[in-house]
Specification:
By secondary structure, this protein is mainly α. It has two domains: about 60 residues; about 55 residues. Helix content is about 85%, strand content about 0%. The protein is built from four helices and no strands. The protein is flat and about 70 Å long. The termini are far apart. The relative contact order is 0.09. The model has no long low-confidence stretch (mean pLDDT about 90).
Length: about 130
């Protein structure tokens, strides 16, 4: 196979494959740690041992908290700030807005606006 064809193929595989591999490794590690923890707790309960209070507190802290509308507001504000930073960077670099990086900045910016709206709606319906 010619090197001119091989380089783009490898670049595409690494561009899309590496994030997938990283997420898969993280998920696999979390699942394995969770299974080991459950096995330890199950063994301790079967032997009739009492679990220490610190251990139980650690288990309760490791449970993910329920998402609130305030999380959406926070995520929306962060994404809009990222979009603003990208647009500012583009303006400082080129002296103009409306092309190139400004279009790319619209993606996180509009997602941020949508999250902000969802968060505000959630806060309003929650207070009623």
């Amino acid at each position: 196979m010619d090197a001119k064809i091989l380089i783009p193929i490898v670049a595409i595989i690494f561009t899309f494959g590496m994030p997938i591999a990283i997420v898969a490794i993280i998920q696999f590690t979390k699942a394995r740690n969770n299974a080991e923890l459950q096995k330890t707790v199950r063994t301790a309960i079967e032997k009739g041992e009492t679990l220490p209070a610190d251990f139980l507190d650690g288990l309760q802290r490791s449970v993910p908290k329920a998402k609130t509308p305030m999380n959406d507001v926070r995520a929306g504000m962060i994404l809009m700030a990222v979009a603003g930073g990208i647009m500012l960077w583009h303006y400082i670099d080129d002296g103009a807005l409306g092309d190139g990086l400004s279009g790319i900045a619209a993606v996180p910016g509009l997602i941020g606006v949508a999250l902000l709206i969802l968060g505000i709606i959630g806060l309003n319906t929650r207070s009623k």
